[in-house]
Amino acid sequence: MRILLVEDYAPLRQAVAEALRLQGYAVDVASDGAEGRWYAAGNTYDLIILDLMLPEIDGLTLLRIWRDQGVTTHILVITAHDTLDDRIAGLDGGADDYLVKPFAMPELLARARALLRRGYQIKNPLLTIGDLVIDTTRRQAKRGGRDLELTPREYALLEYLASRQGELVSREEIREHVYDFAADPSSNVINVYVGYLRRKLGEESPPLLHTQRGQGYMLGVEAPP
Amino acid sequence: MTSAAPAGPLALPMTGSIQRRVVVMATAGLAIALLLSSIVLYLAMAVALRSEFTIDLEARARALAALAEFDPVAGRVDVDLSAVAEVVTTDMGFQLWSPDGRLMAGDQELGTWSEYRVGSAPGAIVTEVVRFEDRPALRLTRRCRGPRHGNVQDETLVAVVIVGTEAMDHHLAQLRKLLVLVALGTVIVAVGFQTWILRRSLRPLRVLADDIARRDRAEAPFLFSGHPRPVELMPVAQRLDDLMARIAEVLARERRIGAAVAHELRTPLAGLRATVEVALLDPATSEAERRRADICLGIVEQMQRVLQALLMLARLDARNVVPRAVNVDLAACLASARDAADAVARERRLEWRWQVPAVCSVTTDRALIELVFGNLLGNAVAYADAGGDVTVGMTAESEAVRITISNSGSRVASSDAGRVCERFWRGDASRSDTAHHCGLGLALCQDVVQVLGGSLEVTTDLGERFTVQVRLPNCP
Which residue, B43, B189, B297, B390, could crosslink B380 as a Cys pair with Cβ 3.0–4.6 Å? Predict the structure, then answer.
């Protein structure tokens, strides 16, 4: 999943970005509202974490701009303003969730996970495909009861494919949602990681990771038609 | 020893009602004016009546004296008694005395010459108030010229006329009554009219007071001078607008400062916390580094609590906290606070003594009351002696609910009971319990309870019980 973090305070921006990357997310960071707007205009994100007190363009204005433009990405607002009126203004302005600073990192990560699931209409933090079970809260996967030893990138790829289970996902979409701006992998790198993932999923029947030449990949019990 | 209950709403010095003062003073002035004018009028009327009466008596006396003639046979002045009968009336007493002191006509019983005061010159009148036939009367004594006879020099006569004054006195009494009635009636009508006119005249003040109350609640800007008001009140309205504008500016400045403080302190704190937590999340962090990061996280959390308390106190000081009244089950709120404090209570082997009804609802601000209960129960479990107890009670009174939170093993002497609600006051100067408590909790609870319209009192004795009693109105 790809996340845009817009936060002007450098230590917080770096710490949150690092925490998200440790969880396997692709994270782009912006240090002011104008930069955040530029990133969102050129890329597709699964979640935006937005500070409200930003230079250039403040967070509430940016929120309104995105919503007026029809941006449907879930937005988690983080801010030092804690009054009820501030929370109402943020939520009414288009935010999907609101977290007051200073916050506990586990809480931020949990809220991010919840919004990411919501983005793919997934209610259950446990994703099940055949005998494959993905625990999105603990970021672990098992197949047939066997723990899968996945790197963060492999897990991120698996989680993204699982969130779109039964759909063909193109390399372009994988690049957009699993890698951040800095990474920008070639399609070969994506192929390699899909290969790693297929190996780690094992050869149990039925196969779960399918390739459709020229179109993309699909995670599901049944192969694409 | 108990701490003094915090001062409630200000006791405003009242100097009496303007309306009452104006009515009383105007009525007193009117009454004095009426009294003086009535007295003057009465005296004038009395003088006029008496004067007319006296003139009448004098005319009668002159008529009587005119009857006297010189009798050449007797060689003296005398009176034809049959002619006297034509002049006198039945309501009068009279005497006509000759120059030599002889009673020529009249009733001897009325008195003798020597009893009268008589003026020396002819025409001299003396009037005296006397009793005549057991009635009040006026006696007029007049020295009159006697009849001419030949070359004999005129001799003077003395005519005495007495007439009862009941009729005149009766008229004067009627006049007095009339004047008193008119004065009283005028005063009563004046009081009623003044009260009515003042009530109408002071109505713009009441309207202004209502506008002020409405402005307190209104979201939109409100200009007192923008509404029609009497000329005399317009300067007041304009000053009010200026004052409200200055207050709004101060509040806006405070909010900006509060917002700036919130941002300036909270954001670095958030950065610090996030950095420490990332270290704890990173699997590459060593055990020693994790322990240090854990300590840092504890310190950050404490700073966060102090900051939160300070911000809340600043808002309360600036009267920026407006309770949102909803129906709240206090028993449920207390139970939630107990659950939050239960881990510490179990760790310290504390016994909960729960004397709270199943349900007890009041109209109050849920978030604020949860803050108060959380603080008080948190304090109770933190400061009770290990193995002791925390007793929580609630009783409903007619217009309020009383909540009592008490822990055993108080560390505060009774002499300090009045200080426990001071900001940053700590019973232990060595700050040995800095980890969780910074001396703001009770101060915050007291201020919040006051905003909710209630009161908070502390009773304590070293080694005995530390008790906090909160009284909340049923409706704010």
Answer: B390
